[in-house]
C-alpha cells in the first residue's frame, strides 16, 4: 500500500503511530541516517485503564510469580516424563 501497488491494501496507505510511518529522505538525513524505527514511528497511544501503576505492578508481579511457579512444576513434570522415556537430559546418559 505504501508504494501504491494495486491490491496491496484495502485502502490508501496511512501512517500508524507505533507501527509505520513514511518519511522523506531529508528527515532521515536529519536523524544522521539512523533507521531505527522508533525515531520515526513513535509509540502508539495507550488508553488509560484507570488502574494505578502501583496496583497494576503488584497485580502483574503476583501473576508473574504464579506463572513462574507453574512453569517450574511443568519443567519438573517434563523432566520426569523424559527420564521415564530413557532421556535424562544429561550429556552421555541418553539411552536412544
How would you portray this structure in words?
With 96 residues, the protein is mostly helical. Helices cover 44% and strands 0% of the residues. The protein contains three helices and no strands. It has helices at residues 25-30, 38-41, 53-84. The chain starts with 24 loop residues before the first helix and ends in a 12-residue tail after the last helix. The model has no long low-confidence stretch (mean pLDDT 86).
What is the element layout, followed by pairings?
Layout: H1 25-30, H2 38-41, H3 53-84
State the secondary-structure class.
mainly alpha
Mean of the pLDDT scores? Answer: 86
> What would you report as the Rg, rounded to the nearest angstrom?
25 Å
Helical content band: 40-55%
Number of helices: 3
Percent range for β-strand residues: under 5%
Q: Low-confidence parts lasting 5 or more residues at pLDDT below 50?
A: none
SSE ordering:
HHH
Concise description?
The protein is mainly alpha-helical.
Features:
96 residues, mainly alpha, elongated
Amino acid at each position: 500500500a505504501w508504494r501504491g501497488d494495486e491490491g496491496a491494501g484495502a485502502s490508501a496507505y496511512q501512517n500508524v503511530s507505533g507501527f509505520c510511518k513514511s518519511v522523506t529522505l531529508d528527515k532521515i538525513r536529519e536523524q544522521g541516517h539512523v533507521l531505527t524505527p522508533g525515531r520515526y514511528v513513535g509509540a502508539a497511544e495507550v488508553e488509560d485503564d484507570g488502574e494505578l501503576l502501583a496496583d497494576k505492578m503488584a497485580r502483574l508481579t503476583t501473576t508473574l510469580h504464579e506463572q513462574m511457579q507453574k512453569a517450574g512444576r511443568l519443567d519438573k513434570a517434563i523432566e520426569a516424563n523424559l527420564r521415564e522415556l530413557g532421556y535424562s537430559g544429561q550429556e552421555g546418559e541418553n539411552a536412544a
